[in-house]
Specification:
Protein name: P-type Cu(2+) transporter
CATH superfamily of the largest domain: HAD superfamily/HAD-like
Subcellular location: Cell membrane; Endomembrane system
CATH topology of the largest domain: Rossmann fold
Distance between the termini: 8 Å
Largest sheet: 7 strands, mixed
CATH architecture of the largest domain: 3-Layer(aba) Sandwich
Order of helices and strands: HEHEHEHHEEEHHEEHEHEHEHEHEH
CATH class of the largest domain: Alpha Beta
Bound molecules: adenosine-5'-diphosphate, magnesium ion
Organism: Desulfoglaeba alkanexedens ALDC
Strand content: 15-25%
Number of domains: 2
Helix content: 40-55%
Radius of gyration: 21 Å
Family: Belongs to the cation transport ATPase (P-type) (TC 3.A.3) family. Type IB subfamily.
């Protein structure tokens, strides 16, 4: 690779908001035949909203549930946790003191709020804690079927209700996926979220290949499995939990609006929140490599 071509390539990238780390990244990006996207915060806005609260029979039961869940989540950095806190604030509810907090990566959180034991998270977390869910399932069918994220909340050993959230795909997601496919690339989505929700979001943006319920520690392994099948993989992500996968990929692409940890693990950072920069970065590397040869 001639230094001049690489300089031109990285310069052109920077102009459109694509920060490329070193000439080797360009070379590897040129060989990519597979692009793996994280879901939350990468394909979606990453700003989920509470759409519904399923609890008890009346409003006070719903408020009580929201207060306990939001109090615990006030100690969490997860986008779902933030959304739950926001909803409680919007409703003018006063949060309670958190006496103990533990994040359970890929599942949720548990702790003690005002003397009560509170567990907030996905279905798998409730199952792991041995908390029965049957009474709720009938009321959740519609939400599960439409791909909403259900956050279960248990208080003192009983599941008391569910916060139903959803997160809209980014506007640029559909055209980005279309372009990548037109370039002949294979596209995947990877997420810790449940299969139904994952499939729904994937369908909305035009992705057929989905890896769901992947634990944060397993994302890198999934990337390596694709590489072992001979694929050259670009991974696109934003979160702390994406960092190992971004580093394992042939080319790691971080969303600049995401976490610093993701950017540090990556070869390329997108400085604008526009997914069309993904195909552009890959095209740019091909053009640069053609100039070089
Ligand atoms: P993603 O890969 O989509 O970014 P994560 O691996 O962070 O998702 O989390 C996987 C799933 O675990 C979430 O979809 C959610 O159901 C649950 N979860 C994780 N953290 C929390 C939390 N703080 N509050 C509620 N649910 C959570
Ligand atoms: Mg994410």
């Amino acid at each position: 690779a001639t230094p001049t071509a690489v300089m031109v390539g990285t310069g052109l990238g920077a102009e459109s908001g694509i920060l490329i780390r070193g000439g080797e990244s360009l070379e590897r990006a040129h060989q990519v035949d597979t692009v793996v996207f994280d879901k939350t915060g990468t394909l979606t806005e990453g700003k989920p909203k509470v759409r519904e609260i399923v609890a008890g029979e009346n409003e006070s039961a719903r408020d009580e549930l929201l207060i306990l869940a939001a109090s615990l989540e006030s100690a969490s950095e997860h986008p779902l946790g933030r959304a739950i806190v926001r909803r409680a604030e919007e409703a003018g509810l006063v949060l309670k003191s958190v006496e103990r907090f533990e994040a359970v990566a890929g599942f949720g959180a548990r702790g003690v709020v005002a003397g009560r034991s509170v567990v907030v998270g996905n279905r798998r977390l409730m199952e792991e804690e041995g908390l029965p869910l049957d009474s709720l399932d009938g009321r959740l069918e519609e939400f599960i079927a439409s791909g909403k994220t259900c956050v279960y909340t248990a208080v003192d050993g009983m599941v008391r209700g569910v916060l139903v959230l959803s997160d809209a795909p980014k506007e640029s997601a559909v055209s980005c996926i279309q372009r990548l496919k037109a370039m002949g690339l294979e596209v995947w989505m990877i997420t810790g979220d449940n299969e139904r929700t994952a499939r729904t979001v994937a369908g909305e943006v035009g992705i057929e290949r989905v890896l769901s319920e992947v634990l944060p520690g397993e994302k890198a392994e999934k990337v390596r499995e694709l590489q072992e099948k001979g694929r050259k993989v670009a991974m696109v992500g934003d979160g702390i939990n994406d960092a190992p996968a971004l580093a394992a990929a042939d080319v790691g692409i971080a969303i600049g609006a995401g976490t610093d940890v993701a950017m540090e693990a990556s070869d390329i950072t997108l400085m604008r929140d526009d997914l069309m920069l993904v195909p552009r970065a890959i095209r740019l590397s091909s053009l640069t490599m053609k100039v070089i040869r």
